Amino acid sequence: MQISRSIQTSWVLAALVWTSVLVSAHPSQQQAPTVRKEWRTLSKHDKSSYIRAVKCLLRKPALTPAFNNSGVISRYDDLVYTHIQQTFEMHYTGHFLAWHRYYVAVYERMLRDECGYKGAQPYWDWTLDTPADKWASSPVFDPITGFGGNGGFVEGDTSNPFEVPGRTGGGCVRDGPFAGIPDLVHLGPMASVTYNPQCLKRDFSPYFAGRYLAMNQTQLTLAAPDFGSFDRIVEGSPSFEASGVHGGGHYGAGQIGDLYVSPADPIFYLHHANLDRVWWSWQKLNLDARLTDISGPILMMDYDNVKGGNVTLEFPISVGASAANVTVGDVMNIAGCGKNGVLCYEYDSVYTLQG
Ligand SMILES: [Cu+2]
C-alpha cells in the first residue's frame, strides 16, 4: 500500500515541530454567511475573477519562514506546504473532514482578503460529470471558463500496484489558465518540500470517477447513521477497490492523486468544497445532533484505537502560517458566524437522501 510504504516518512513528519505564526483572526468576520455555488453556475465574469485571484495567490510571497532550499515560494505554497507537513496527521483520522473544512475556508479567505475576490469558494458537484464518458468534458475542465483539462498521456507501468486503474494522462496540463507554466508547482512530489519547479500535471481516470463519484455513492455516504461510519465511507480505504467520494475526485483527476501535494492543483479546493458540502448535507439531515457528532481516531488508520484515542470537539486544528489555530468544535457549524464557531458560509443547495 502507498500508505504503509510511506509510513516511515510519517514519523519524520510527526517529529517536525510545526511552529505556527498566527497572522490573523478567524476567517469568519463577515456579517452574513457567504453562499458557495457550483462552478458551472457562476457567471463567466465570476469564473474569471476566481481564477484571477488564484493566480494572485500564486504570485504573492509566502509567509512560512524560509528554510534551506525552501520550495515554499508563494502564498499559495503556504497551504500546500501545510498539507504536506500534516499529511500523516489528518488523513484517515476523525478530524479529516474538520481539518479540510477549515483549510478550504482559510483559502477562501485568502482569495478574498489578500487578492480582492468578491465571491465565495465555488464547489464542484462531480455527480453531474458522471458516468465516465462525461468526465473529461466537465465544465470544471473547460480550457476557457474552467481550470483546463487532462495532462498529455505518459506511459505507465500496469504492474505497479499504485497505478490508478483507467488512467489516461499523467503529463503537464495542455490547455487552460495553468498550462504552459513550467514552474507552477514548487513542492513535491510526495513529501519533498525542497524547491522543485514543475508544471501542473493531471492524469484523468474517467473509469475511477464514474465508479466512485456517481450519485449512488453519494447516497450511500449520506445514509451513514453516525459520524464515525460517515467519515469512513467518505474516505474509503487506501485501496483502489474500496475508495469513496474523497478518493474518487483525487484519482479521477490526477495531480490531486498525490496524497501529499494534491492542493497544488487549484481544483483541489473545489473538490474539497464539495466533500464539505457532502458533510454539511449529512449534518443537515439531523442538524441538532450532528453539530456535535464527531469521532474517529487521532492517529492515522487507528480505527480500533490501538495506539491512541478518538478525536473530540476540543481537538486542535492548525493550518500553519496562514491562520489562527482552531478546534474541531469551532468548525462543526459552517454558518456559525462568530456565535457558534469561526466559519460563516452556506451552500446554495445540499444533497438530500432519496427514497
Ligand atoms: Cu488532504
From TrEMBL:
Tyrosinase copper-binding domain residues: 91-108, 265-276
Record's keyword annotation contains Signal: yes
TM region positions: none
Cleavable signal peptide: 1-25
Pfam families associated with the record: Tyrosinase
GO molecular function, one term: metal ion binding
Keywords noted in UniProt: Metal-binding, Oxidoreductase, Signal
Cross-referenced InterPro entries: Di-copper_centre_dom_sf (IPR008922), Tyrosinase/Hemocyanin (IPR050316), Tyrosinase_Cu-bd (IPR002227)
PROSITE patterns with a match to the protein in the record: TYROSINASE_1, TYROSINASE_2
Listed PANTHER family: N-ACETYL-6-HYDROXYTRYPTOPHAN OXIDASE IVOB-RELATED, TYROSINASE FAMILY MEMBER
Name the record gives this protein: Tyrosinase copper-binding domain-containing protein
Source organism per UniProt: Corynascus novoguineensis
Lineage: Eukaryota, Fungi, Dikarya, Ascomycota, Pezizomycotina
